[in-house]
Specification:
Layout (H helix, E strand, L loop, with lengths): L9 H12 L6 E5 L6 H13 L13 H8 L5 E4 L16 H11 L8 E5 L7 H12 L5 E7 L7 H4 L3 E4 L5 H12 L3 H10 L4 H9 L2 H15 L4 H21 L1 H25 L13 H7 L5 H19 L4 H16 L3
Parallel strand pairs: 1-4, 1-5, 2-3, 3-4
The protein binds zinc ion.
């Protein structure tokens, strides 16, 4: 899509359109920001603007054959270095390896079909050290007609020698309203669901879409109900909840990565409830809450907690996420987490 169709990111769009209109395009950009806020779409918009014969004010027309081929993913002048590109990634890998950079290097040796080829390194922080060093050599002597765009969450995750060769462009989380409107318009989501998804996705449209497609709203209800239960049950019942979650966890790890994401989503959902309790304690306006549909439960339990216990509960869940990422004994983590949260709710 051209710049004019991209959601939010007004500052980035304005800056890029100015650069493109002046025809002085740096050969490397670093797009920084969380996933799912439009970095890849922006890269496509750059490829369109540079190759479009009818571009206006630094934006592609969106309808000419060149623009359409880029939008549809059929243009050789838009090269994505990411697991979706089966010509570069022959098997599923989260890491960008030196062999992937070699294939990129080979591809950029040929002239683009149009005026410029735009090459995107998605999740550039996933480059191995060897891959990063090999990519650095390409950046040091960039073949003419190529523009490189690195997408990353944080520049600190990349080699400083790579970062210093790129024009940095910051991407912001999207607004709740923009995401809500998109879910209404494009996915026909009902008002309440769109409201919940747009609040819990941390400003990432990509995350909101993933959540919608993985049935998050149903799972969220059961996750929130169990954590609310924890606030008032006996030690034995809390232990049963822990066992129940250990089993869910075991099942999800057996069934693959979708299940693993569930566990992270569960931690995030639980944290959002503790965050809401802190906001209520501090007298924040209700429209700042993430779980407005649980307001009665939140108000019922908020008095039982001190802010300190709530912060500790969030810390606990952060640690759980770290441990899960490091693949430490899953059952043990879940038991410790649930029982830890239970103790904190009892003021222990
Ligand atoms: Zn066009």
């Amino acid at each position: 899509m051209p710049f004019s169709h991209i959601m939010g990111q007004e500052k980035a769009k304005k800056f890029l359109r100015q650069v493109l209109a002046m025809q002085r395009v740096p050969h490397a950009y670093l797009f920084c920001g969380i996933s799912g806020v439009g970095k890849k779409s922006m890269a496509r918009a750059i490829a369109m603007a540079l190759n479009c014969d009818h571009s206006v004010d630094g934006d592609g027309c969106g309808v000419c054959p060149s623009c359409r081929a880029i939008a549809d993913g059929n243009s050789p002048d838009f090269l994505l270095v990411g697991p979706e590109n089966r010509e570069i990634f022959d098997e599923r890998s989260d890491r960008i390896l030196i062999e992937h950079i070699r294939k990129l290097n080979h591809a950029v040796g040929f002239s683009p079909i149009g005026r410029y080829r735009v090459c995107v390194l998605d999740h550039a922080q996933n480059m191995t050290v060897e891959a990063a060093n090999s990519f650095l050599k390409i950046l040091e002597e960039p073949p003419p007609g190529n523009i490189f765009i690195l997408n990353a969450v944080d520049p600190l995750d990349l080699l400083p020698t790579i970062v210093s060769r790129c024009q940095r462009v910051a991407f912001q989380p999207l607004s709740i309203n923009d995401i809500k409107k998109w879910l209404f318009r494009e996915r026909d989501v009902d008002e309440e669901s769109a409201d919940i998804l747009s609040r819990v996705c941390s400003g990432s449209l990509g995350k909101a879409i993933d959540m919608l497609d993985s049935n998050y709203l149903v799972k969220r209800k059961s996750w929130l109900s169990s954590v609310v239960d924890l606030f008032s049950v006996s030690r034995n019942r809390a232990f049963l909840i822990a066992v129940e979650y250990m089993n869910i966890l075991k099942d999800s790890y057996r069934t693959g990565s979708g299940g693993r994401n569930d566990v992270f989503d569960m931690c995030m959902t639980w944290k959002s409830l503790y965050r809401d309790l802190i906001l209520i304690k501090e007298g924040a306006p209700f429209n700042m809450l993430m779980n407005m549909d649980y307001i009665h439960d939140l108000e019922r339990h908020v008095q039982a907690f001190g802010v300190d216990a709530l912060l500790k509960s969030i810390d606990f869940l952060n640690r759980t996420e770290r441990d899960l990422m490091n693949n430490i004994n899953m059952s043990l983590i879940m038991e410790q987490t649930v029982m830890g949260l239970w103790s904190l709710a009892r003021g222990a």
